[in-house]
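ingest -> validate -> predict -> emit
validate: passed (alphabet ok, no gaps, 280 aa)
predict: started
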Amino acid sequence: MAAPVLLALGSALSYGFVDFAGGMLARRAVFTAVAFACQAGGFVFMIGVVLILPSASPSMADLWWGAASGVGTGVGMVFLYRGMVRGAMSVVVPVSAVGSVTLPVLAGVLLFGERPSAVAWGGIAVAISALWAVSRSGPGEGTGPTPHTRDALIASCGFAVQYLALAQAAPEAGLWPVVASRFAATLTVLPMALTTGNGVRLSPRHTVYAVLIGSLAALSLLLYMLATQRGLTAIAVVLSSFYPVVPVVLGIVALRERPSRTQAAGLAGAAAAVVLLAFG
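emit:
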């Protein structure tokens, strides 16, 4: 597989674990406080990384793109965690991926002139269909919108901004756009956390967990940015958006959540789409 494909899949795998672990933690503590601690932890992690690695020369535009990405992240994570508190993780996370993959792909083609190959287009079509199938309501949940699916759809718009904005940062900017993203995400979540529950306060144990989750999320975003710099944004977005597969599988195995037949077909379609995009 080409390097951009491996980077994007690495981003998807790590982000999947982030969503599962963050969702579990959000069910044990105030979800807005968890979201804030995760973003703050990711910011501190990225500061440490840029101090170790060679310096770069970001422009103000690169930093603004990173900050815009962080605003999307902050909104997305708050509503994602609220959705996972309200409903099944194996439904909420995939729904949050539908908009986050569709909107950046369309923008990459319509606004930035990207031209995927015919095989890659097939992979994108299969991927979007697979994500739609995985996001269908599970057994006993009905067919209409529910509070947790509405939360997930709002989260998907935030994640679309996250992916699309960060992809505009130039390679010469190095890791600084991700630093700006984590800083803006922390500031975005802060007012929401201060007006909910006990503010930003968590127990020491939960704080440590949140910081670790946030650091892994920052690493995921870094892998995604590197994938967009080495390949097409449309393909990087689609592959990175396969992160729902991880919490869906873990929800089935660890939480005994049961997918519908449509959701199971969607997981199979996701695997097929990876193959098409990898070799397209």
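The mean pLDDT is 82.
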